[in-house]
Every structure is written in structure tokens, then in C-alpha cells.
Amino acid sequence: MDDRKRRTPGQQLQIDFGQRRVEIGDALRQVSFFVATLGYSRRIHVRAFAGERQENWFEGMESAFAAFGGVPDEVLLDNARALILSQDIASREVVVNPKLHAFARHWGFQVKACAPYRPRTKGKDERGVGYVKGNAIAGQTFESFAALEAHLVQWTRQIADRRVHGTTGEAPGLRFARDKAAKLKALPRCGSFMAMRELSRRVAPDCAVEMDPNACSVPWRLIGERVCVLVTAETVRVTHAGIEVACHRRSAGRRGRIIGPAHFAGVAGAAGRVTTSTDAIDAPIGVSALLRPVAEYEAVAGGAW
After folding, report:
1. Which of 219, 246, 217 is nearest to 230 (CA)?
2. Do residues 27 and 33 lie in contact, with contact meaning Cβ atoms separated by under 8 Å?
């Protein structure tokens, strides 16, 4: 991406993790520091975690959105295994973890992954990680993990936001006003993605998967297969072998059935039995690859039934 676009207010947030051993409660502990840097204002947000699990990335991003009071157009990240399944160096094709894909759709931003072996692509945030480790943490000791977290909040507000940035020549806290006023999108009312639940379900003979007292449809070719169901306050997303195969709006009722008509395409008699629903958000990814016309089965059986 052109660096001028990266410098557009509200356009991009860069995220990364850095590690440092910190003395906490008279013992040295390895701490992972999540650092989010707005590309235009260079304002940063820092969180401390015990590791770099996928939920730590998500919690860090949600914390940054809350701290900045909005969501950027895109989030630039590296090829962390918790987020990116693969990236082809030649074609630049990126395969995003399905859960990150759902997270990005939930918050309304695009995922941008750095090209492998090109660390300068995300230089702003990597410099931010070094700044946190060298300025906020170096030489510090803390009574507890909570004390470390409180220190990071105070350090960000009193030092990081007020310093004159070497590249922009302005204090990030002052420059941030243009980030927020110009482009950052308002926080959606859908609530935290972290409130979601991940379920493993086997597809029933009626092409449905159960979640709590309700059920939702998936492509009929998946009958008998085990799928992953991601349930949030707003949506139900179903993935199989890493591919999203169904997406429904979550029903507020009980013992209901959410039907996507495309999931039954090609099934004999389906047109007379399936009830059309407006709860299907969009056409599921990869549905065409999961369906076969009845004619193929007639050919195998030696004729129509």
C-alpha cells in the first residue's frame, strides 16, 4: 500500500506483540506486550498479557478500539499463526483464520497482512513496541500484574501521548484529534466479539446444527460432518475445514429454525419443504463447491428415482 494512504487519518491501525522479562512480585516473568499504533497520529495503545493466544490479539484490538473511541478502515498485522493460516510469497494470497475473518466483519475493518520477510511494512508499530519496552518498562518493577497494567495506562496518558513524535513533529495526543474527527468509524452497537462462544457440532440429517434451543441450516452436503459454530450476540457463523459455509442472524426466540434456502439447492422436493427466511446474512462462502445437482446422483443410481 502507498505510504501516503497509510498516513491518511483513521485509515490504518498497526498491531504487534513484543516480549520482555519483567520483575513482578519479586519474580521475573515473561510478559507479552500488545501494542496498537494509529498510522496517522502515531498514538499508541498498550496491553500486557501472559501470552500471545488468539484471544489476546482480539482482546488487545477491542481494547484499542475502545481507547481510541472508534474503528479504523484496516488493521495491519504480521503473519502470526494465531491470525494468518498461510500467505503465498509469490502471489501475495493471504488465507485468514476464519475466526479473525469473523472478528473483522464484526467490527467492520479490513485485514491487511505484511508481506513475509518485509518487516518495514509495519515499521510504525515495531518501533512502538521498542519504545514501550525501552521507555515504559525498562528498569521498572511491579508489585502485581494489575500494578503493571495500571502503570501502562498512566504512562500512555502522561508520556506517550504528550511527547513530540520524531517523525510527525507533533504530540500523538494532539494529532489524534484529526484521526478521530476525520475518519475513525463509530464503535458498533453489537458489543464485544469476545462474548462469543465457539461450539463443535455434527450436522444432523435435516441439514441443521443445534445451538442452545435453536437450530440453523448449513449446506446439505455437510450432513454427518463435524463443523465449528461461532455464536455472538448478533450472528451465528458456521465453518468447515477452515471455510465459512453459513452465516445467519441470531434468533432471539427459542426452539426456532433459521433457514438459508441456498443450503438446500439441488435437493429433490426442497422447493416445497423449505421456508424462506430473511435471517441469512449473505450467501455463504464456498456453497457452490459444496453442492451437487440431483442429476449426478441419478446417474450413479442408474436413473431417476
Report:
1. 246
2. no
For residue 247 the three cell numbers come to: 452465516
What is the four-CA torsion angle of 118, 121, 124, 130, rounded to 10 degrees? -10
What SS3 state is found at 129? helix
pLDDT digits (tens, 9 = 90+) for 138-186: 889 999 998 999 999 999 999 999 999 988 899 998 898 877 766 788 8
Alpha-carbon 82 to chain mean position: 10
Rounded-to-integer distance, Cα 9 and Cα 159, Å: 22
What is the torsional sign of CA 204, 201, 282, 1? negative
Burial class of residue 210, CB neighbours in 10 A (0-12, 13-18, 19+): middle
Reduced to 3 states, what is the DSSP secondary structure of residue 218? coil
Residue written as cell 422447493? 271
Q: How far is CA 148 from CA 41, 47, 48, 233, 235, in A?
A: 25, 10, 8, 32, 36
Residues 6+ apart with CB under 8 A from 170: 164
Residues 193, 194, 195, 199: is their CA dihedral positive or negative?
positive
Whose grid coordinates read 498498550?
A: 46
Higher pLDDT: 13 or 304? It is 13
Q: For residue range 95-106, list pLDDT tens digits in order.
A: 888 889 889 988
- For residues 223 and 240, the answer to whether their CB atoms sit within 8 Å is no
Mean pLDDT rounded to a whole number for the chain = 80
Q: What domains can be seen in the chain, in order of their start residue?
A: 3-182 (3.30.420.10), 196-301 (no CATH)
